[in-house]
Amino acid sequence: MNLFMLKCKIHRATVTDANLNYVGSITIDEDLMDAAGLLENERVQIVNINNGERFDTYVIKGKRGKGDICLNGAAARLAHKGDKVIIMAYCMVDEETAKNIKPMVILVDENNKMIEYLNETCEK
């Protein structure tokens, strides 16, 4: 049996922009992508803490060090600049591997700069 397991999470990021006139996706600062272990074009689930919206999209690499968290296209209707979001990616693994998976969970400040790993057992 294969299971979908949490791979990584960026917790309480602040939306910096919402661009309705774009093809789609979420732009994430490359530093945050590296810290969380996200890849460009990877599917992510976004949870908007402010309004409860949950939706999936894919990652576009943002400029390193800028702190960008920008929702693009239709996703721009589901969050506003300043909203707090949780960005999660999942992986599919076999049941035995699932028992030992340790997701990368990072906490960011109000400027979307990583401040700590919430899961101290994570390997970077």
Automatic annotation (TrEMBL):
Transmembrane segment boundaries: none
Post-translational modification note: Is synthesized initially as an inactive proenzyme, which is activated by self-cleavage at a specific serine bond to produce a beta-subunit with a hydroxyl group at its C-terminus and an alpha-subunit with a pyruvoyl group at its N-terminus.
Sorted UniProt keywords: Autocatalytic cleavage, Cytoplasm, Decarboxylase, Lyase, Pantothenate biosynthesis, Pyruvate, Schiff base, Zymogen
Cofactor note: Binds 1 pyruvoyl group covalently per subunit.
Xref: Pfam families: Asp_decarbox
E.C. designation(s): 4.1.1.11
CDD domains: Asp_decarbox
Locations listed in the record: Cytoplasm
Gene Ontology cellular component terms for the protein in this record: cytosol
BP-aspect Gene Ontology terms: alanine biosynthetic process; pantothenate biosynthetic process
Biochemical pathway: Cofactor biosynthesis; (R)-pantothenate biosynthesis; beta-alanine from L-aspartate: step 1/1
Keyword Signal: no
Cofactor(s) the protein requires to work: pyruvate
Active site: S25 (schiff-base intermediate with substrate), Y58 (proton donor)
Molecular function via GO: aspartate 1-decarboxylase activity
Pyruvic acid (Ser) PTM positions: S25
Main localisation: cytoplasm
Residues holding substrate: T57, G73, A74, A75
InterPro entries given in the database record: Asp_de-COase-like_dom_sf, Asp_decarbox
Catalytic activity: L-aspartate + H(+) = beta-alanine + CO2
PANTHER family on file: ASPARTATE 1-DECARBOXYLASE
NCBIfam families the UniProt entry points to: panD
Oligomer status and interactors: Heterooctamer of four alpha and four beta subunits.
Family stated for the protein in its record: Belongs to the PanD family.
Function recorded in the entry: Catalyzes the pyruvoyl-dependent decarboxylation of aspartate to produce beta-alanine.
Protein name: Aspartate 1-decarboxylase
Lineage of producing organism: Bacteria, Bacillati, Bacillota, Clostridia, Eubacteriales
